[in-house]
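Complex record, two chains
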Amino acid sequence: MLLFIARRVGVMLLTALCLTLIVFSLVNLKPNLVKLAKEQTGARVTEQQVEFWLDQNGYNRPLVVRYGEWLAGVAQGDMGHSTRFNAPVNEVLWPRLWLTAKLMFWVMVVMVPGALLLGVLAGMREGSRQDRVLSTIAIGTTSTPEYVSGVVLTIIFASQMVGLQWFSGSATSAADDGITFYNFTLPVLTIAIYGMGYIARMTRASMAEVMTQQYIRTARLKGVSFHAIVVKHALRNALIAPFTVIMLQFPWLLTGVVIVETLFNYRGFGWLLIEAAGNNDIDLLLACSIVAVVIVLTTQLISDIGYVYLNPRIRVGG
Amino acid sequence: MELAYLGPWAVLGGVLRAFLPVWIAMAAILGTSFALRRRLGLYGHLFASGIGVVGLALVLFWLLAAIFADQVALFDPYAQIRALQNKSPGVIDPASGLPYLFGGDALGRDVFGRMVYGSRSVMVIAPLATLFAYMVGITLGLPAGYFGGWLDTALSFLANLVLAFPVILLFYLLVTPEIRQTAIPSTMAAVLFLFPVLFMVVFFWSRFRERPEALWWYLGPTLAIGGFVYLGLVGFWDPTGLIAMDANTLNIFLAVVFISSPTVFRIVRGLTLDIKTRDYVAAAQTRGERPWYVMMWEILPNARGPLIVDACLRIGYTTILLGTLGFFGLGVSPESPDWGSTINEGRKLLRIYVHPALPPALAIMSLVLGLNLLADAMREQSMKD
């Protein structure tokens, strides 16, 4: 097991290195640098002035040297300087990430139990009317990307036209004054809906498979009630597969976070990513991508280890 | 000036009437298919399930809307009529006497017409990008699963590398005006578009290797058409102007193919690993067939069921990706009627004017729902066999 984890961590580090190198070279493409130089010095500059600025700030040195420097900086905890906010990246990044972490926490709180319930209820009687209705609902939610559900939910619950105005169509106040039902319901629901269907379908498939197993039949034949079979015998075995799926949802959720933070004007990590990309803020964009990549790889690692740990039938060599 | 409005029922009637060519074509296609369903294989089996018919109808609806967009839309999607800015659904244009069925947007354009025309780019790019991603994924996934070893390790590492990239970050890095000034898009195009030609050549070569007269019969047209399309897409030479995409579209197309192909690779690799242990593969190996023959003519046809189902889901997912790109204004021209950017424009005034953002949002949802239902019904029907 230890060897397995060590090998996984090794591959993960290699992947992270490759990914950051790719991002680094893409961000530092010549046209991007020229754009940055023009933004920093004023739009009406000649080509010589642009070159001079790039030379002066060290942007014209070989890519590998600069990548090495950047990597050494990151290893020491120095993420560089944000040109968009004119502050160290460390000061800009972490508070925003914390805001997004809060959003993600509530998304998970809503999404995971909802999805598991949907999946278990559908999968425990495969092929029944209940199954078909719930499965179709699950397909419906996977067909509703965030920019669709966000718009529809805002129209229903926050627009003057429908007039309900139960919730706020903007989550800006959640960042400053704290989270309330009024300002946070719509963003959380918007992300949760899209992810829910997928987890629910995986849970359903897993549950349906478990329900056909021999030990379920045995339990049924010895007269255990259906309720007890589902809760005591099937549920635990059926929840192994969804665990992996839930962990692998994180990279998907990142896109959702960016969309929702734009849609509801919540200034977290997703908003920061867009600001960095839009303003060609090299250090900040690199920092954002490293955070994103670390999140994705860590969740993959946890899902791999968790899957092995939860499922006694898998024994990894070593 | 006082503007005249249609009532809600008149709007509904107008919409139904505008889609008349679509209804007629849809009835013809569904009717013929239903009559011939026993001879149409998996496609015919779809008519046995209600969900399958609903999914098929939704997909057909948008496909036909894209084809008949010129007949369905009452106005040019780019034309702006100032008097009709932000007007509610059913408002009548005083000049032509025709209604803006779903109202006018912030620039006074016809929301209904833009929704109909928006289906065009989706209906071209999403299936084509999926097809290309499949060619790449199959050409690399088959040998990775079949041979294993270092080839598998290397290709899987590459695939996982791309999959570990958050989609949104990749979009922001790959679909920018700046990147179009570099050689990256054309290099990517040159590499990615090589795979379909490569796939077809290997496909025929592995089967007709020892029968040159038949081989050239297949290979000749493949190389001619494939080479022509390749040259057109990569942008060296295209006298007809049929194939070349503008830089924006090509950029989007490449990004979507690039993101989809690793997933396809993983699916194909997994299926190959599974199928390669079957008896008929062992039989082919025993009678001395070459590896590529076994892969292309024994394994691939037997993997088609799951691949078709996944292709359906993948077209839906690509539609969502295209919407995401449009939503962030990446790679689309600001005037473009595509659904994602229309939603993005409409959402800015959402709390006051609801009507510009809602139609494209529901359009995306219904198309993706159709594709997902179709995939689900196909999976169910293919399991019954």
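Note: Strands of chain A lie at 81-82, 87-88.
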